[in-house]
Amino acid sequence: MEHRSIGSLSIGGRDLRRPHQLGQRPDFHPGGRVLATGSADQSVHLVDLSDVEHPRPLAPPITGHTNAVHTTEFDHDGTRLVSGSVDGSICLWDLTDQTHPIAFGRPLRQKRLTVITAAPAGGLLAIGSPNELVQLWTLDLDVAVRRICESTSDTLTEPVWRRYVSEDIDFAPPCGT
Q1: pTM of whole model > 0.70?
Q2: Per-residue pLDDT, 142
Q3: What is the C-alpha to C-alpha distance for residues 40 and 25, in angstroms, rounded to an integer?
Q4: Is the pLDDT of residue 16 over 60?
Q5: What is the C-alpha to C-alpha distance for residues 166 and 98, in angstroms, rounded to an integer?
Q6: Residue 35: which H helix or E strand, with range?
Q7: Which domains are assigned to the chain?
Q8: Which of 84, 107, 143, 162 has an alpha carbon 20 to 30 Å from 125's alpha carbon atom?
Q9: How do 134-138 and 14-15 pair as beta strands?
Q10: What integer is the mean pLDDT of 162-177?
């Protein structure tokens, strides 16, 4: 296997070769021609590697974190991307159109996280933290709603929905309220 450097990674005219500017854990799209990497500028960059000699931005920087982004992970089919920041925020992005990523809701919060990885079969994230705790999160909305409804009773009021789910999505109590 041949190993060679493609030189510095420059995205949008900015040289991102210095370690403090790139995320600690970039990830390749399952198709192998797109790289996702976090940055100290609080954003995620999608890089088109169709021509590895001339990498180029695939989309504008993806924003949503409030501190440096240090981990990224594509799901099994590459239609979603998860990013994690040193501030403990976790963002989920819809990449159905890779040139126009869309946030799935608001960032989730962890006290601290070190790495995020997706199950190869999809639907499950493992989130590692510095205290050696690993949490498993489902990406299956129906499973998540069922678990929430089983463990709570009528606590998802419209104000709570607006605060934690979305101000833009019509209030729809999932537990039959």
Answers
A1: no
A2: 73
A3: 13
A4: no
A5: 23
A6: strand 34-38
A7: 10-139 (2.130.10.10), 140-177 (no CATH)
A8: 162
A9: unpaired
A10: 72
